[in-house]
Amino acid sequence: MGYVDSLMGKNEQILIVERKHWITLLMSILINLFLVIVLLALYSVLGTFAAGNPNLGFLGSLRVILLFALLFPVGRVGWDLVQWEAEQYLVTNRRVMQTAGIVNKKTSDSSLEKVNDVVLTQSVLGRVLGYGDLEIVTGSDVGINLLKRLANPIKFKTTMLDAKAAMHDPDIEDLRPREVPVTGGLLGVKPKAASGADDDDPLKRIAELDNLRKSGAISDAEYQSAKAKLLSKI
Q1: Same domain for 68 and 113?
Q2: What is each CA distance from 45 to 14, 38, 51, 53, 59, in whole angstroms?
Q3: Whole-model pTM?
Q4: 207 and 124 in one domain?
Q5: In CATH, what number is assigned to the domain containing residue 104?
Q6: What is the pLDDT of residues 101-159, one digit of tens each?
Q7: What pLDDT, on the 0 to 100 scale, is given for residue 49?
């Protein structure tokens, strides 16, 4: 993740890394597997004709061409796999990012402060296999807006909302990643040191969060999430 690390700002930390679900490769694999089967069948049929008609020497050349043609579907699957590997979706303590491209890299991101809402759509198959479409509603048309067939979308969504809540009220929690594996990440939660007795009062913190919610600084979902965590400390 050297390229991704180079994009990080000062004190910016990666909280989770995900990719599109492997099911996005399924259509490419099936189509190219079908092409391989067809080419192998033609190769076998031409071999049968060539054995029974030794005067048709051009059939041997056609069989050689078919063998070279097999490289196309195999190479296509390999290329799609490399592209899938290169496309990543990340949440940091400041923004949500998308990186793509093998040689020519493309990066787009949206600040967590601009995220107004997150809509998760999962089909029955998506719930079983663990993928879904995540729509990020922001105040602008640029940046990341729709993550299709995202792996582990629920974990990605909660990590993003928790990170945004921590930006508005850093006294709640300090989100730090314990581990960032290739296909995902673990979100570590570490309470910040108390600055005084009043700051440790969960009821006072809930009241302050309620004021932020009423002013529109945070959403109802963020308020409920932070409230639940504070109540668990009582």
Answers
A1: no
A2: 55, 11, 10, 12, 10
A3: 0.62
A4: yes
A5: 2.30.29
A6: 888 888 888 888 888 888 999 999 999 999 999 988 876 665 567 889 999 999 999 99
A7: 74
The answer to whether residues 11 and 33 belong to one domain is no
pLDDT in tens, 8-38: 888 889 999 999 999 999 989 999 999 999 9
Are residues 114 and 159 located together in one domain of the fold?
yes
Q: Are residues 111 and 66 in the same domain?
A: no
Closest listed residue to residue 104, CA positions, set 183, 3, 1, 25: 3
The predicted pLDDT at position 192 comes to: 44
Structural domains counted in the chain: 2
Residue 47: domain span: 26-82
Report d(CA 145, CA 122) in Å as an integer: 16
Considering the domain architecture, whether residues 14 and 114 belong to the same structural domain is answered as yes
| All residues at 6 or more sequence positions from 32 whose CB lies less than 8 Å from its CB, including other chains | 73, 74, 76, 77
